[in-house]
Amino acid sequence: MTTDNSTSHDSPQGASADSPLDRFIAVIPAGGVGTRLWPLSRAAAPKFLHDLTGSGSTLLRATYDRLEPLAGSRVLVVTGTAHREAVCRQLPELDESDLVLESEPKDSGAAIGLAAAILYERDPDAIMGSFAADQVISPDGLFQDAVREAIHAAAAGKIVTIGIKPTHPATGFGYIRAGDKLSVTGAPNAHTVVEFVEKPSEEVAQQYLDSGEYVWNAGMFVAPVSLMLKHLEANQPELFAGLQEIAKAWDTPLRDEVTARVWPTLPKIAIDYAVAEPAAAAGDVAVVPGTFRWDDVGDFASVGRLNSAKEVDDVTVIGEGARVFTENASGVVVTDTKRVIALIGIKDVVIVDTPDALLVTTKAHSQRVKAAVDALKASGDTDVL
Amino acid sequence: MTTDNSTSHDSPQGASADSPLDRFIAVIPAGGVGTRLWPLSRAAAPKFLHDLTGSGSTLLRATYDRLEPLAGSRVLVVTGTAHREAVCRQLPELDESDLVLESEPKDSGAAIGLAAAILYERDPDAIMGSFAADQVISPDGLFQDAVREAIHAAAAGKIVTIGIKPTHPATGFGYIRAGDKLSVTGAPNAHTVVEFVEKPSEEVAQQYLDSGEYVWNAGMFVAPVSLMLKHLEANQPELFAGLQEIAKAWDTPLRDEVTARVWPTLPKIAIDYAVAEPAAAAGDVAVVPGTFRWDDVGDFASVGRLNSAKEVDDVTVIGEGARVFTENASGVVVTDTKRVIALIGIKDVVIVDTPDALLVTTKAHSQRVKAAVDALKASGDTDVL
Fold first, then answer.
1. How near does any CA of chain B get to the CA of A328, in Å?
2. How much is the ipTM here?
3. B382 to each of B42, B285, B359, B385, how far by Cα in Å?
4. Cβ–Cβ of A343/B361 closer than 8 Å?
5. Average pLDDT over all residues of chain A
6. Do B360 and A365 touch (CB under 8 A)?
7. Does the pTM exceed 0.80?
8. Above 80 in pLDDT, residue A9?
9. Which CATH number fits domain B20-295: 3.90.550.10, 3.30.300.30, 3.20.20.150, 3.40.50.2300?
10. Minimal CA–CA distance to B177: which of B155, B149, B204?
């Protein structure tokens, strides 16, 4: 990790001398079990560690590669201690000091707040961009365009979310209501944010869509770390103080000791409540609309949609070395075994085949997978969760 | 093996001195891969080695136990060399000289003909009863009643099939047309057989059902071994000669040598064509109707029917240590793994879970499983067949 951007290795594409782009550092929160993707995604192997799109890259690796043209190697990953090895294997270029390990989950306020605090200690002028490791985005060029605009808007003193232009009245996402246009060089599409709104009913979602004022909240944002910390301090002083203590010790020999002592004491709060909403109320939040394709891979139906290229007859097959035979069948097969899987006369089926657990459902029911996980939890069969 | 029935161990129930029942010896052909039950049933582990009814007994063991009250330990098993170990494990009481191993499959003519020839060498007055190892029968008492009648009719000089009273116009079985009643003491329900007929159309099957003259051909018969051999000699002299050669060597040190030399040269023909049909034409075949429940476990739909007692919600679960979780699901799960299997919102599904192969189909399509096996064969994936 360095704040000296003069080396070619660290210099991102498209950054000229003194450009805000030079101040950009990517943060990748890699958390979340992805319960609705059980049994593929589970506590020991959450979804960001899987290649769910058949691209040849895991979601984490693809997220890193998508940010590399903007951030070079200036990337911080925040994940659980359990995933340390897997993350290092997938991102061998990551320095140990750029891997933030959560000994226990503390929600996004602590995770992203700590990243901001560490980056501030290294460079108070840093602009961070936070992008979850479990999302699927294409094409990368449109994403990078949006992030560049967001960096310019952030340099003008905003916390800048990247909203997704809605394609249908989705009820599964929060929405962001855009206000007036900003006048920031390099950010022609940036607008102020009027408010964040929770997941709406379908009727309300349709009104949002019709109005043209709303975008989906994809949880992506770009912001000066100093502005993040300012709002965090104002709204969550206890959390702020703890994070400061860890951050000051981070690049010293005391890192592990202080982290181990302080992290467990931190309050749990989502970054939305700790920073984004109060900052929006204070007029400090902007939005840049993203026109790229975005999917949070929430269930196996979306896994199927994202893999339309790899079809055996009408069955989407995901898994290296999969041996799938179909007759008069359609649906999705996700396998991380080498077993022969034969599908006969069954439609819209979703099959997830792992060494110790098998899920069989339908595309229409794939949102209900969480219920199975809850049932297993209740029955004590936690070995496969 | 002994033809001296005076020991209590060998003496079957209900046999009085000089009763034909004393001459009875059971033959169990244990062959047939059961392709329509893939991947549970396969070349290395055919269906008769599985507990498909959730009874705690495999089909083979249940067949043996069902015959024990009639035959005592006088049982011959005919199977492939590949299944020697598995059969001996399931039937530890079987003498080596009562296990006939086919080095290669030669159809039922050779298999049952050799049993007849071996038994004739031991006792020319023996009455054999042949009962395939892969059928499900209940209750045992009604079956045994029918076999006793058949033994009495056989002692009167008949090859006696046990036909199943049809419950519906099945098109998947051959039928037997009964003629006049026989007058044999101990066999009040025995009739002559007019003819054997092949699997009919549904319309014809309905006519058979309505006429009351037809029963299903379940492939079960009881006959004096001498009468079997007489018809075999007349119709298949080459096969007869080969079987005689093996049978004469069977209970001598030359058994293996002669069998290895002669068996591969034997012609392949079904016992129906080699004996039953010509014998029927000669007026030597009778039928005793069986009123017991009978199922040849032809596919997973029948596996489901046979296991109605073991239900998780609406899902029939077969397999020791199965861990099945369902929500809004119905169908059949057969597993010989300990994997957790979760079914969500899927109806009438058939899932067969084995360590190296998984089948997912529906009850309606379970007859099509053979097609998957053929496709695997064609593709060279024979490791799982």
1. 10
2. 0.76
3. 10, 42, 15, 5
4. yes
5. 90
6. no
7. no
8. no
9. 3.90.550.10
10. B204
